[in-house]
Amino acid sequence: MKINMYVLTGLMASFSIVLGVVENYIPTPVPAIRLGLSNVPILIMLYLTYARFAFLNALLKALIVPIFSASIIFKYSLGFPSTMMSFLFMAVFYKLFKNKLSIVTVSVIGATAHMVTQIIIVSLFYIKGLIYTNIAGILLLSAVISGILMGIISYKVVNNKQIQSMFQKCK
């Protein structure tokens, strides 16, 4: 059965990577704002499998998506630490408060951790003082909104009986 879980992890990571690449080409009003579509497969893996498989999904996404982006070094410097921090926060909050927090809340925590990490990195290495500008507030608000939307999508998928059955067969 373990082979099936690795195959499923690979499929979900592929899905996450494709969503991440496609998302780079969706225009937004502020360049740093993204929907976070590529985090939906990670959340699904976190809720329907084990954290280690969700981590593999996040790691593969963080390593591969920047390769298909225009500015690979910039995307790695922001994307990799942000994705890892987002996953860490989602996994910890899911583990500690599994029965108390909804998937939407965990998604918002992950999106917020992702954006805070990016703001800190940009403030330290690219644009000094970004944390103290109005744009930081807009970015955090967008993270909360996208976290809610991606959490709702993840909730719908995770609570689908057919999808639950498919994941159970692979465990």
Plain-language structure description:
The chain has one domain: Orthogonal Bundle (Arp2/3 complex 21 kDa subunit ARPC3). Helix content is 75%, strand content 0%. The protein is built from seven helices and no strands. The longest helix has 25 residues.
The biggest sheet amounts to: none
Report the C-alpha radius of gyration, rounded.
16 Å
Please give the number of β-strands.
Answer: 0
CATH C-level class: Mainly Alpha
- Secondary-structure-based class equals mainly alpha
What is the N-to-C succession of helices and strands? Answer: HHHHHHH
Q: Which architecture name does CATH use? A: Orthogonal Bundle
CATH overall fold name: Arp2/3 complex 21 kDa subunit ARPC3
Q: What's the number of structural domains? A: 1
Question: With helices defined by DSSP (H or I, 4 residues minimum), what is the helix count?
Answer: 7
Shape: globular
% residues in beta strands: under 5%
Contiguous runs where pLDDT drops below 50 for at least 5 residues: none
Mean pLDDT: 88
> What percent of the residues sit in helical stretches (DSSP H or I)?
over 70%
> Span between N and C termini?
6 Å
Helices and strands in order:
Layout: H1 2-24, H2 40-48, H3 51-64, H4 72-96, H5 103-125, H6 134-158, H7 161-170
Helix pairs in contact: 1-2, 1-3, 2-3, 2-4, 2-6, 3-4, 4-5, 5-6
Give a brief outline of the structure:
By secondary structure, this protein is mainly α.
Characteristic key phrases:
Arp2/3 complex 21 kDa subunit ARPC3; mainly alpha; 75% helix; 171 residues
